[in-house]
Specification:
The protein is an alpha/beta fold and 517 residues long. The protein has helices at 5-10, 21-29, 44-54, 66-78, 92-103, 120-128, 155-163, 176-187, 214-223, 237-249, 263-275, 308-315, 333-345, 350-367, 373-380, 392-395, 404-416, 423-431, 436-441, 457-469, 490-493, 504-508, and strands spanning 34-37, 58-62, 83-86, 109-112, 131-136, 167-171, 193-195, 204-205, 208-210, 230-233, 253-257, 279-283, 298-301, 325-331, 400-402, 473-476, 482-485, 500-502. A seven-stranded parallel sheet has the order 3-4-2-5-6-1-7, with helices on both faces. It binds adenosine-5'-diphosphate and zinc ion. Adenosine-5'-diphosphate binds next to α3.
Length: 517
C-alpha cells in the first residue's frame, strides 16, 4: 500500500483529510474508475492531485475553467510539483515549457481544456506519453440536459477508450439523472466506484461546552454512558494518563494511548479496543489512523482540537455503524492560546500558518456558534443544511444579547494599554482592581479603569473567550500572549458594527448584576 500522509502534509500543507477525501484518494490511486460527488469547496482537487503524485506517469486533468486551471497549476508549481496546462490562455513560451516537460517525462499533471481534445493532434500526443490517469473536473458538463453542457466533454469517453487508463470524474451535482449520464458518457455505461456521501453524519449528536472543571465534565459525560465504547481526546500525553486513571477509579474500563508509548503497548490498546465492549481509550490524536471500530458510541474532546478538519475527523470516528453517537467538545481560553502558539511556534512558512489560524478560527466559530452546529459545520465544508435537531444548540437555542457595549469596553482597554496585556490584567483594569501591576503601570489613570463593574470577573472571562472565538482578539506569542486586536474588531470599536454574544455562558458566571439584554 502507499502512505499518502507525508505528501498530504509536505506538498499540500494539510495535516488531515477533509471528509471523504481519503477514501477517494485511495480508490483513485489504486486505479479504480471513480465518480465522486462532493460539494463545492469540499476539496475535490486534492482527490486527483494526490493520486497523480502517487502514480507513475502523467495525469491528464480535463477542466472547463481556464482561470481555475491556471490557479491550480501555479499552486502545484509553488509546492514543487511539475504541472502544466495546455489552454488557449497560454503564451507560446508556456506551451513550449509544457511540451518540454512532457517529452522529458517530468510532468506529473497536465491540465487541458476540453476544446483541446477536438484537435486531432491531442490524442496522438497523449498516446505517445505515459498517461496513467484521466481526471475530469466538473464532470456534469457532459450532461446534455444540464445548463453547463460542454459538447467537447463528449470526447472524453473516446479519450479514455483510446488510452485505456482509469478515469476519475468529479462533480458537485448530485441528481441521479446527471449521474447516469456521466456513467454513460464517460465510462461507457460500466459502473465506476461511486462516492456520494455528503459530509453530514446525521447520527452523530454535536455539542460543545466551555471548560468549567473539565475533569469532572469528562467524568460526568462518561458516567452517563457507562459500558459504551468511547474515546476521550486530550491535548497532552500526560493528561491521557491522568484522565484514564480517574475513569478507572470511577469504575470504567479505560486505558490511555499516545505516541510516546512503545509500539507493542499501543498495539495492545488497539486490539483491546477493537475486541472489547465498553472500553474507553483516553488518547492524543495519535489514536485514530486505522481505527475502524464501527460501534464507538461517543467521542469527547477534553481539549479543543487544532482545526475544524481535525474536529470533524475525530468526532467522525463515532457511530460508523449508523447507530446513535454522541460527542462533546470542551474548550477554554487556554486551549485557544495553546493552539495559537503551536501554530506560531511551528516551522511552517507564513502562508501555511495563516491558513492554520483560519482553520482554527473556523473551529472557534463553531464553538461559539449562535445557531445549529451542524449547519455551521457543513457550511464550512460547502454544504447547506436545515437546522438539524441533533445538536446542543438545536436542543436548546442559546440566548443571545447585543454584546457591543462590553466588547467595546474590552477593546478600548486593550487599545489604551497598547496591546501589551493578557485578559487577566485587562479585567483588573475594567474592574478597577488596584493590583501592584496596575499601580506600577499607572493603569488606574486610564479612562477605561473601572468602567466594567457591571460584570463580574468570571463574566468578563467569558466575554473575552467569546471575543477570541469571534476572532476579534488574538494572543500574540511575541508579547507573551498579550491580546491584540484583529481587523474584524475595528468596526466594533468604531461603533460601525454590532456583535451578539451568548448569554448563557456569561450568565452562568457568578455575581449579579445579570447581563442586560
Ligand atoms: P472544490 O474543487 O471541491 O470546490 P477545492 O479543491 O478547491 O474544492 O478545495 C477547497 C478548499 O479546501 C481549498 O482552499 C483547499 O485548500 C481546501 N482544502 C482541501 N483539502 C483540504 C484538507 N485536507 N485540509 C484543509 N483544507 C483543505
Ligand atoms: Zn443543530
Amino acid at each position: 500500500m502507499f502512505d499518502s500522509a507525508p505528501l498530504l502534509r509536505d506538498v499540500f500543507g494539510f495535516d488531515d483529510f477533509r471528509p471523504g477525501q481519503e477514501e477517494i484518494v485511495d480508490a483513485v490511486t489504486t486505479g479504480e474508475n471513480v465518480l465522486a460527488i462532493m460539494p463545492t469547496g469540499g476539496g475535490k482537487s486534492l482527490c486527483f492531485q494526490l493520486p497523480a503524485l502517487l502514480r507513475d506517469g502523467v495525469t491528464v486533468v480535463i477542466s472547463p475553467l481556464i482561470a481555475l486551471m491556471r490557479d491550480q497549476v501555479r499552486g502545484l508549481q509553488e509546492a514543487g510539483v511539475e504541472a502544466g496546462a495546455l489552454t488557449s490562455g497560454n503564451t507560446p513560451e508556456e506551451t513550449d515549457a509544457v511540451w518540454e516537460a512532457l517529452e522529458a517525462g517530468r510532468l506529473k499533471l497536465l491540465y487541458m481544456a476540453p476544446e483541446r481534445l477536438a484537435a486531432g493532434s491531442a490524442l496522438g500526443m497523449l498516446r505517445r506519453i505515459n498517461v496513467s490517469l484521466i481526471a475530469v473536473d466538473e464532470a456534469h458538463c457532459v450532461s446534455q440536459w444540464g445548463h453547463d453542457f460542454r459538447p467537447d466533454y463528449l470526447r472524453i469517453g473516446e479519450l479514455r477508450r483510446a488510452l485505456n487508463v482509469p478515469l476519475a470524474a468529479f462533480t458537485a451535482t448530485a441528481d441521479a439523472e446527471t449521474q447516469d449520464e456521466i456513467v454513460q458518457k464517460l465510462f461507457d455505461g460500466s459502473e465506476p466506484r461511486k462516492f456520494l456521501r455528503g459530509f453530514d453524519r446525521p447520527n452523530i449528536h454535536l455539542a460543545f461546552t466551555a471548560k468549567d472543571g473539565p475533569r469532572k465534565q469528562v467524568l460526568d459525560f462518561a458516567a452517563a454512558r457507562k459500558g459504551q465504547s468511547g474515546i476521550v481526546y486530550c491535548g497532552t500525553r500526560n493528561k491521557t494518563e491522568v484522565l484514564a486513571k480517574a475513569l478507572c477509579s470511577e469504575g470504567h474500563s479505560a486505558c490511555h494511548y499516545h505516541g510516546g508509548m512503545e509500539a507493542d503497548d499501543r498495539r495492545i490498546v488497539e486490539t483491546r479496543f477493537a475486541r472489547e465492549d465498553g472500553l474507553i481509550v483516553v488518547a492524543t490524536v495519535a489514536f485514530g489512523m486505522g481505527i475502524d471500530k464501527p460501534d464507538i458510541r461517543w467521542v469527547a474532546h477534553a481539549d479543543l482540537p487544532k482545526s475544524i478538519e481535525a474536529y470533524y475527523q475525530e468526532i467522525g470516528r463515532a457511530g460508523r455503524d449508523g447507530g446513535p453517537a454522541e460527542t462533546l467538545t470542551m474548550f477554554g481560553p487556554d486551549d485557544i492560546r495553546l493552539r495559537r502558539s503551536q501554530i506560531d511556534e511551528g516551522l511552517a512558512p507564513p502562508e501555511r500558518r495563516m491558513a492554520d489560524h483560519a482553520r482554527l478560527n473556523a473551529l472557534l466559530g463553531l464553538a461559539e456558534a449562535l445557531k445549529c452546529r451542524r449547519q455551521t459545520l457543513l457550511g464550512y465544508f460547502g454544504e447547506q443544511a436545515d437546522p438539524c435537531g441533533k445538536c446542543d444548540l438545536c436542543d436548546s437555542p442559546p440566548e443571545i444579547f447585543d454584546g457591543t457595549t462590553p466588547v467595546r469596553m474590552a477593546l478600548s482597554a486593550i487599545l489604551r494599554t497598547e496591546e501589551w496585556f493578557g485578559a487577566g490584567h485587562l479585567i483588573d483594569i475594567l474592574l478597577a482592581n488596584e493590583t501592584d501591576k496596575i499601580r506600577a503601570r499607572r493603569h488606574d489613570t486610564l479612562s477605561t479603569y473601572g468602567i466594567g463593574k457591571d460584570w463580574s470577573r468570571p463574566q468578563w472571562q467569558a466575554i473575552f473567550r467569546q471575543m477570541m472565538g469571534h476572532d476579534l482578539v488574538r494572543p500574540d506569542p511575541e508579547r507573551h500572549g498579550a491580546l491584540r486586536m484583529t481587523e474584524s474588531a475595528k468596526p466594533i470599536l468604531k461603533g460601525e458594527a454590532h456583535i451578539n454574544l451568548r448569554k448563557d455562558t456569561i450568565r452562568k458566571a457568578t455575581r449579579r448584576p445579570a447581563v442586560k439584554a
